[in-house]
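Q: Second attempt. The first request was missing the SMILES, so the protein and calcium ion are both included now.
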Amino acid sequence: MIQGEIPNDDPAVVPNGDHGFGGTALVVSPVQLSGAGADPWIIMGTIETHARAGDPMHGSLHVYKRDSSSSSGLLEVQGLRMDGQSGRPFLYGFCGLAIGDVNGDSEDELVASTFNGDLVVFDLSLSSGNLQIGGVLFWTVLDGSIGVANSIVIADLDTATSGNEIYVAGSRGMRKFHQ
Ligand SMILES: [Ca+2]
Ligand SMILES: [Ca+2]
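A: Got both inputs this time. The predicted holo structure:
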């Protein structure tokens, strides 16, 4: 096709303006939730979003869905500052995202990682048909950055543990988490 260029590179595909410094994690996947349908959902994480005056730098998560009425074809249905306020965790530098069932209840969760070594599992739910990122189900901090370049895999590779495991690549090697 076009050598050296990204075909159909369309800046308008990022709806709703500037989310700050660096969108570094992206997952596109249908979600296993009652009533979620087969359409893919898109979740993006930033390194750092626009901090409010006096706030420390923090990242953000954004949920999109396909919407033919939008000029970009996508609609943002949720944007969350991870600023430590209102029950949200304080997180900086999202670098990996994955969707899968990690607690064996046949519904999917969102797994996120950061340059700071945070590994966080968020609850997912539907509200008025839209995917919403909810509360923190699990949060640990590991040595070094983990999950960089979306190197998070949710899979049942170990039959000795119930259900899926979470595998993350990090500066201290590959780590496995399970129920
Ligand atoms: Ca689950
Ligand atoms: Ca297993």
